[in-house]
Design goal:
Distance between the termini: 81 Å
Largest sheet: 2 strands, antiparallel
Number of strands: 2
Structural class: mainly alpha
Strand order of the largest sheet: 1-2
Shape: elongated
Order of helices and strands: EHHHHHHHEH
Radius of gyration: 21 Å
Length: about 230
């Protein structure tokens, strides 16, 4: 029996986040002239995370946070071999929430960071120089935590693959084969919910890029600039 697991918005989010995070890690590591691209990629990541937050409440069945929230009862049932379901299992859900949560912190901290040379995050002026420097240090150290979480995520996928369970294919095509008659295809994720998620994510991007900040003062008129 073929059942639908992951809707198209969830799959696009997953792979776009993978690409942008990888590119952000590389540009941040290289630095130099690439730091501007690092900042742009950070803003894209904020848009994606804001979209996923909304879609986690309004998306289709297995994309909703309530569906895979790793409660103690669900984790215990999974460890005992009694958990049945599709989408993220309880232990996988812990990894997903940890990765999404830390990426959110990393992206937001980058808005207030600087590179001690010429780059500042779009909201750096909202905090003191000392606070910006402190957040910059935490932002740089976060590279290793993100790499660790990604490694954990990939290791879990590899272990399942060795056990004959392909977790990548459903995230590519959206469906999988199942012999469990109790499982149902994902439902929900209406067009209006998709549009709302796009709008809220775009507003979050606008605010993250300094949209709520007052405009800079106009430059002085040429007559006010000394000729010397």
């Amino acid at each position: 029996m073929r059942i639908k697991v992951w809707d198209l918005p969830t799959r696009l989010f997953h792979w776009l986040l993978f690409v942008t995070v990888a590119a952000a890690l590389w540009t941040g590591w290289v630095g130099g002239s690439w730091i501007e691209w690092h900042g742009r990629l950070g803003l894209v990541i904020i848009w994606l995370l804001a979209f996923r937050l909304v879609w986690g409440f309004l998306g289709s069945t297995y994309a909703r946070f309530a569906q895979f929230l790793p409660t103690p009862a669900r984790i215990l049932a999974y460890l005992r071999g009694n958990w049945r379901g599709e989408g993220h299992n309880p232990l996988g859900a812990l990894s997903v929430f940890a990765l999404l949560g830390y990426l959110t912190w990393q992206a937001v901290s980058g808005l207030f960071s600087n590179d001690d040379i010429a780059f500042e995050g779009p909201l750096a002026d909202l905090v003191s120089g000392a606070t910006s420097t402190w957040l910059s240090g935490l932002h740089r150290q976060g590279l290793w935590i993100i790499l660790g979480l990604i490694a954990l995520h990939l290791t879990a996928i590899a272990i399942y693959a060795l056990r004959g369970k392909n977790l990548v294919r459903p995230m590519l095509v959206g469906w999988k084969e199942s012999d469990d008659p109790g499982l149902r295809s994902a439902k929900g994720g209406k067009v209006w919910a998709l549009l709302l998620a796009f709008i809220i994510a775009s507003l979050a991007l606008w605010a993250a890029n300094g949209g709520l900040l007052p405009p800079p003062p106009p430059p002085p008129p040429p007559s006010a600039i000394p000729a010397w």
